[in-house]
């Protein structure tokens, strides 16, 4: 029963099954280095990897673990079990279970497993999320920014501080970078600030390019 172990810090447990990839299987397992966790977190498909990247960038997420437990239940005919994809601890202390599957890959057995998981989460006061395909433009941009997620990309601090000053009024990515200094040094810091949310851009409106409008966090886009 999940209710008997709801106080367990599932964000800190080991996965209940290994992450491996076998030739000829549809999944693609791997390990993603999460800056939230400062450790690797497992995934079993590209779709799970993308969701993991989005969770890693979400400022409301404080911890993530993959396949943290087996949920057991009886469906009236036989015993069933399901290992949810992710356990997420939010900044509020609230817990969220995230299961990842594309709509066109959902069969009846999977729908039943997700429904049972959602019911168990409701019983213990947890959130449940079924995540499908993310917005493709947003995801392409966030994948790019994830290359610059590590803290070392935000240095030197003087460059980061100067970028925040320059983008206090919205301007194009290329123009702002040029005002700060050598783009080879400046752009990794700029992308790190976009990853961390200290700088903002419309990541769903189009792929990031030299003319993309960037502004400091808390500022509104303005036209003029």
Automatic annotation (TrEMBL):
Domain TnsA endonuclease N-terminal: 58-129
A Pfam match: Tn7_TnsA-like_N
Top-level taxonomic group: Bacteria
Record InterPro entries: TnsA-like, TnsA_N
Name of the featured protein: TnsA endonuclease N-terminal domain-containing protein
